[in-house]
Amino acid sequence: MQRAMRLLETVAVHEYGAPAKQLARETGLALPTTYHLLRTLVHEGYLRRDKGLFFLGEAAERLSSSGARQKRRSTVVDALAHWRDVLGVPVYYAVYREGEIEVMCVSDTPGNPAVEEWADFRETGHAHAVGQCLLSQLDEDARRDHLDRYPVQPLTPYTVRDNHSLLRRLERIRRMEPVTERQEYALGAVCAAIPLTLGTTAATMAISLPAHQADRLLPAARQLQTEIGRLLGSLALSISM
Q1: Which N-terminal residues, if any, form the signal peptide (predicted)?
Q2: So what's the pLDDT on residue 167?
Q3: Which residues in the chain come in under a pLDDT of 70?
Q4: pLDDT at 237
């Protein structure tokens, strides 16, 4: 396995391909061993041979693509954990993709746990800050389409009462302002969400707090927004996961 990996790594360096003898020399492998490994790797799709030169095959490129995605996701996970520790609150990352609210990552601790998803986040976007923030970034037709599929339903005494009231609220949300909700999704919890600009993708980072700490909500959200602003350039590709 190690020898095969050395061969793959060496082939990857040669954008325009390399012959078996050169690969044997650069990896320090015996030529018969190199030929045997190359045949196996070609058969398995990790390499391809063209006019005596070896290139990375589709299987290796799929591995590379998967590894790049994992690295991007790791960047986001690390950033959320950092903000979680700096702010002392759970941090959430979510996107609106193909008509659905997707919570991609949550970073919390036993001392500062995330809000329990007692009602499906995808179906209750009207009630939580994550969903309201994402819906506020959509155009009117997309909002109405979402509410046709997931109409407003009361979850707590504080939840917005109907589709019309929610649409009016979304229209009043100012661009790039934090979106807050207080006990609309879960009693005892308050949340704030920061809109993110990712091309045409609606995205958000959010935080939550126990209701008795509601006075911390907006200052913590502003601090998160500042932190995101510092790193957004380097995270832009990563958070499109």
Answers
A1: none
A2: 96
A3: 1, 63-74, 198, 231-241
A4: 44
Within 98-187, residue ranges assigned H as helices are 129-136, 140-149, 163-172
Predicted TM-score (pTM) of this structure: 0.69
Task: Say if residues 129 and 180 touch (Cβ distance below 8 Å).
Answer: yes
Q: Which among 210, 159, 204, 203 has a CA at the least distance from the CA of 181?
A: 159
Alpha carbons 67 and 69: distance in angstroms, whole number: 5
Percent helix, percent strand, percent coil in the chain, to nearest 5: 50, 20, 30
- The fold of 1-56 is Arc Repressor Mutant, subunit A (1.10.10)
Q: Which residue reads 């939550």 in tokens?
A: 208
Domain layout of the chain by residue ranges: 1-56, 70-239
User: What's the pLDDT at 235?
Assistant: 56
Q: Up-side HSE of residue 34: CA atoms within 13 Å toward CB?
A: 19
pLDDT (tens digit per residue) in 132-170:
999 999 999 999 999 999 999 999 999 999 999 999 999
Q: How far apart are CA 52 and CA 177, in angstroms?
A: 59
CATH number of 70-239: 3.30.450.40
Fold agreement (1-56, 70-239)? no
